[in-house]
């Protein structure tokens, strides 16, 4: 076994970060808050509670949290039938599975949203398991989702590589002791990703697939 290939989904395998931004912006607007879209963009990847606190502050009216989160869920669900996967996403997962990597998703998505994302990626045969927000107490940047993914794959952190697109992904991987690979497809600057712990940075999944031999997934020294 080569090890575990742990993947974030939004912004990594699917081109959905900006859909989340628009849905969150509207959810905040409906609750009477004007939140700049660039601020929302940088918070995407956090769990709902952490995202709301980051954007509205700890002194906000927390009684609004549930309604804001629910509004985002309803708004984002309008895209479920047409969520776009990045070119090469499914092929990358199938290629890694074919090389004996255990592919596990680590995502804040769950339920119908996760099902829609998996349909978009269209590589279920390559995915061994999923660590979703339903399975952990704390989402990224906590190490918990990545640690759970390693346990599901039956590997140690040293045998895993995590691929994500946000600062929160890189911080979660680093805290879990897992090698972190960053993609620029989520719209976060390279310098921010490297500062958060990215060992290697690629444009998107297609670029990572094209350079797989020279990546942390290559045949050289690495997991396993």
From TrEMBL:
Keyword tags: Hydrolase
Coiled-coil regions, chain positions: none
Keyword Hydrolase: yes
Signal sequence residues: none
MF (Gene Ontology): hydrolase activity
Entry-linked InterPro entries: HAD-like_hydrolase_sf, HAD-like_sf, HAD-SF_hydro_IA, HAD_sf, PGP-like_dom2
Any Pfam family hit: Hydrolase
This protein's name: HAD family hydrolase
């Amino acid at each position: 076994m080569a090890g575990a290939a742990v993947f974030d989904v939004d912004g990594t395998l699917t081109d959905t970060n900006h859909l989340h931004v628009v849905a969150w912006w509207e959810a905040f607007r409906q609750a009477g808050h004007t939140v700049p879209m660039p601020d929302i963009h940088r918070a995407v990847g956090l769990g709902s509670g952490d995202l709301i606190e980051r954007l509205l502050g700890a002194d906000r009216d927390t009684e609004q949290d549930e309604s804001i989160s629910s509004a985002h869920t309803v708004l984002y669900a309008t895209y479920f039938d047409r969520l776009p996967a990045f070119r090469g996403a499914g092929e990358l997962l199938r290629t890694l599975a074919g090389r004996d990597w255990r592919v596990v998703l680590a995502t804040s998505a769950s339920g119908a949203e996760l099902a829609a994302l998996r349909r978009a990626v269209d590589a279920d045969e390559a995915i061994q398991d999923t660590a979703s927000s339903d399975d952990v107490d704390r989402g990224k940047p906590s190490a918990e989702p990545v640690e759970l993914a390693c346990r599901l794959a039956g590997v140690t952190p040293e045998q895993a590589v995590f691929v994500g697109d946000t600062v929160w992904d890189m911080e979660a991987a680093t805290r879990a002791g897992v090698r972190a690979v960053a993609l620029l497809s989520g719209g976060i600057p390279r310098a921010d990703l490297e500062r958060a712990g990215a060992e290697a940075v690629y444009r998107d999944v297609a670029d990572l697939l094209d350079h797989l031999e020279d990546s942390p997934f290559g045949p050289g020294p690495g997991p396993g």
